Amino acid sequence: MKFLCLACPHGNVKFLKTPLQDIDAVLIAGDLGKADKARALRMKYPDAASLSEKVSKQELEEMTEENISSSYKILKYFSKKPTYFVFGNADNPKATIERRNKKYGMKIKPLEDRIRRKAENINGKVIKIGNIKVAGLEYFCELEWVKNFVGKDAHRTYLEKFEEKQAKTFLSKLEKVDILLTHNPPYGYLDLVDNPIVPKSWNGKHAGSHSVLEYIKRKQPKYVICGHIHEGKGRVKIGKTTVINTSNSFKVLSL
């Protein structure tokens, strides 16, 4: 089978010309839509646990709709083939949109309600595509990352603790798969921050996941498809596992 794997398309229209001939399925490792407005605000408030507590209602609506509408275009294009995805840190899951709508009186339609059956979110799931076993894990924030990059206990919110616990629980129970589709790269591999738009103190640090690395070492899946750190794009081996960071690009795998 041939899999088209990509990460962090961020709504870029160049991906709407990706050749899909002879492709059996598409795997997207998060950050589907544009996040230009959200990223600018995040850099303005790097210590904020939630941007929604810092920005105006109009800014919140604009950055959310920019992200969801561009995500929809990406999924609509790739859904010409069976398409499976996980969310990245720049994405907005349905639960997030519903909370914002209720709290701020907005009427943003969640991505999941727009795509319907065009693509499937496989976060926390193990599926079979033909005879290939694929597991999905969306972005989660580890408290170790908070300590190294933010360093303030106030940022260690309940949500982040919940995300880390949920991801660790999933990975601890996950048996060996052919492909792990995850937004987070493994710690120390294809995850070195070197980006002029982030706080200077972040550069030169590894931003990957210790939990993902532990799973790779323990179960040795054939492939890990990840993204998140754009400058980490590339391929590396960890034992028998091939890790591919496909940030802002795509790769074709034949299994």
Explain the overall architecture.
The chain has seven helices and eleven strands. The protein is an alpha/beta fold and 255 residues long. It has helices at 36-44, 57-78, 94-104, 111-115, 143-150, 158-173, 210-219; strands spanning 2-7, 25-28, 83-85, 120-121, 126-129, 132-137, 179-182, 223-226, 234-238, 241-245, 249-254. The strands form two sheets. A six-stranded mixed β-sheet has the order 5-6-7-8-10-9, with no helix packed on it. It has a five-stranded mixed β-sheet with strand order 4-3-2-1-11, with no helix packed on it. The longest helix is centred in the N-terminal third of the chain and has 22 residues, at 57-78. The model has no long low-confidence stretch (mean pLDDT 92). The chain has one domain (2-254): Purple Acid Phosphatase, chain A, domain 2 (4-Layer Sandwich).
Outline:
This protein is an alpha/beta fold and 255 residues long.
- Average pLDDT, rounded to a whole number, is 92
CATH architecture: 4-Layer Sandwich
CATH class equals Alpha Beta
Q: Could you tell me how far the N terminus lies from the C terminus, measured between alpha carbons in angstroms?
A: 5 Å
Q: What is the number of domains?
A: 1
How many strand units?
11
Number of helices: 7
Unreliable parts? none
